[in-house]
């Protein structure tokens, strides 16, 4: 059963490894947690949230996995909350919660702390790349990684975003390497991880908004967890819901805070 008391059945394997249902950690022992939890922050997404969630749900059902999809709504001013509620009422695998401000990182972190699956995928509402899910789960089940990051800049990736978005990603990653000794090629976008091992890491993160995802990956790396990257293809359905340049001041403040915490306080 899921968080709403409804059954999630079936679990099969990506590749040749078996993915089993696991008992939920509730006191009454009456429910079974899904194999996979998907957390998707949403903000002003009334135009695509329904079609994206329905398509993702169907694609996941085709894999035979037990799963839950948690929509982390954060401060939308359109009909996103109403559409999320309709999806939750219609589909037993879908749930949502709302916070009172546009804050991607806070919504994602709270979603990670709420879900119950053995494996967690952090996705974007305009991506839903189930091929990433399959490749990432294969690495996680094989025990050679506790986190898998979908990299837009790794050799073999196909990033169809506009050129200025490429440049911003490269500049941001360079800043993380210089200031926080990050060793990878990307921190944003899709990622998958083993919940039992890394949920505490997510809980220890101190920044929010756009930088939470980066802190989560960097903390996992600093805690000597095996973090691996795989190349992904990025085809967005629409322009970002928040203008890139409007995000810069908050990004800089949160990076400064993170540098202070990680390099001075810790």
Descriptive keywords:
single chain, alpha/beta, 266 residues, two-stranded antiparallel sheet, seven-stranded mixed sheet
Kindly report how far apart the N and C termini lie: 41 Å
Which regions have little confidence, pLDDT < 50, spanning 5+ residues? Answer: 5-30
Order of helices and strands: EEEHEHEHEHEEHEHHEEH
Beta percentage is: 15-25%
Helical percentage: 40-55%
| Secondary structure tally: strands | 11
Radius of gyration: 18 Å
Apparent shape:
globular
Strand order of the largest sheet: 5-4-3-6-9-7-10
Structural class assignment: alpha/beta
- SS summary, helix count: 8
Q: What would you note in describing this structure?
A:
There is one protein chain. The chain has helices spanning 49-63, 80-90, 104-114, 130-141, 163-180, 195-204, 212-222, 244-265, and strands spanning 22-23, 32-33, 36-42, 67-74, 94-99, 119-122, 147-151, 158-159, 191-194, 227-231, 233-234. The chain is an alpha/beta fold and 266 residues long. Helix 1 packs parallel to helix 2 and helix 5 packs parallel to helix 8. It contains eight helices and eleven strands. A hairpin with an 8-residue loop joins strand 1 and strand 2. The relative contact order is 0.15. It is globular and about 50 Å long. The strands form three sheets. A seven-stranded mixed beta sheet has the order 5-4-3-6-9-7-10, sandwiched between helices. The chain starts with 21 loop residues before the first strand and ends with a helix.
């Amino acid at each position: 059963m899921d968080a709403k008391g409804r059954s999630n059945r079936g679990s099969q394997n990506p590749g040749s490894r078996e993915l089993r249902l696991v008992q939920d950690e509730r006191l009454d022992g009456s429910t079974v947690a899904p194999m996979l939890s998907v957390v998707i922050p949403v903000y002003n997404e009334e135009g695509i949230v329904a079609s994206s969630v329905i398509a993702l749900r169907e694609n996941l059902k085709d894999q035979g996995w037990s799963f839950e999809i948690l929509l982390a709504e954060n401060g939308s001013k359109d009909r996103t909350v109403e559409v999320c509620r309709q999806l939750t009422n219609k589909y037993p695998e879908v749930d949502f919660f709302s916070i009172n401000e546009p804050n991607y990182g806070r919504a994602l972190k709270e979603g990670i702390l709420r879900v119950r699956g053995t494996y967690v995928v952090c996705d974007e509402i305009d991506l839903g790349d189930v091929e990433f899910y399959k490749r990432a789960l294969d690495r996680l089940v094989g025990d050679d990684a506790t986190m898998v990051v979908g990299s837009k800049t790794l050799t073999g990736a196909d990033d169809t975003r506009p050129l200025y978005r490429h440049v911003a990603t490269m500049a941001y990653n360079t800043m993380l390497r210089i200031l926080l000794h990050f060793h990878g090629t990307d921190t944003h976008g899709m990622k998958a991880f083993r919940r039992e091992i890394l949920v505490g890491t997510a809980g220890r993160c101190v920044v929010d908004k756009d930088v939470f995802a980066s802190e989560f990956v960097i903390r996992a790396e600093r805690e000597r967890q095996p973090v691996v990257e795989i190349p992904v293809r990025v085809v967005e359905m629409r322009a970002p819901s928040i203008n890139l340049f409007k995000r810069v001041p908050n990004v800089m403040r949160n990076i400064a805070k993170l540098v202070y915490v990680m390099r001075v306080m810790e």
